[in-house]
Input
Amino acid sequence: MFNTIISWALGHKFIVLALAGLVTIVGLWSIATMKVDILPDINKPTVAVFAESPGMAAEEVERLILTPLESAVAGAPGVERMRSNASYAQATVNLEFAWGSDTLRIRQVVQERLNQAVLPKGVKPILGPTTSLLGEIMWIGINASDEKITPMELRTLADWTIRPALLKTPGVASVLVMGGDVREWQINLNAERLRRYELMFDDVRENVANALTNKSGGLITEDVKEYSIRILTAPEHASDLQDISIGRNMMDGRPIRLGDVATVVEGASPIRGSGAIDGKPGVILRIIRQPDAETIAVTDAINDTFTSLKPILPEGIELHPKLFRQESFIRAGLGNVEGALRDGTIFVIIVLIIFLLNIRMTLITLTAIPLSILATAIVFKAFGLSVNVMTLGGIAVAVGELVDDAIVDVENIFHRLR
Output
């Protein structure tokens, strides 16, 4: 068989050169378009389920929320492992499925199972974003050089300006915000006044909830025109809440305003964690990419997003985009392996020239290295594999054996032809 291959190759030189050129072109295209990462994606398809119930202790969360969730999703087709956790006001369930499971299908199955769970009123389980173990690619921080900018303003900027812009970036699955003070309107009820007006807490909560949403009043038709009627009840400022009617006085029938039984202020929600950058209060944004997205490409897109955001950010806001960047680990790891591969190739060339003492044989032998690497890239591209430290390390190890085989083959061919 080898004699046939060698004879055919020697008799059809132009075809061999054309095939080598084709492998070179397709291989270079494959390398340019292949996914680059620090490590291969080795985690199984996973679906995360979150459920919140403000005010519940961990024991109540486990008994009333976590147990029904586990019972509902435990029998889902394809589930191989289930891990759950109950903490203050939150339940988390992580489901691992078999290799090769379709992500969209298993998420649909889990969602159908969650609809069957019997949970306390107001508790609605949601599915987490589709991510992987290496999905957290960047930490970005913001703080203020101007002391007049409060942590609440920083958090508001992060939640309503920076985070929505990052979520629109291609390849970003989720953005988690930590630190700062979350702005909220706080209604501080006076128990003595509630008793005086014979009101219950639920009465206040129900009337306030109804007043926080604008309503529709239908349409008015005049001639050939239609006008929509809007009932604007949602307040724009915290002080506007004090004028909300929450009932009527039993004595004289006059309406009771929220301001009669409570004080309304704008403040920060209870703090359950903080963020700091270089010793100054700040806000941290943790960016998680989609499983099929390339880390370096997503990082470049995020950099472009921040470039477009800088002109609209208030003065005194400082961005810290390099708190953590997975891209740095990828470039450093791949650079080390590429350096070892380059140095090994140089040493191989020197050894070939010294021992073969024939420039033509040396050049023919050396063609095995780039052509084999390019052929490997074509196979990787065809099977959807990525360039990472492990694959490049395997290629670097294989170069020695590859050149050794090429030397033996070429030397034997040269000896027999001579």
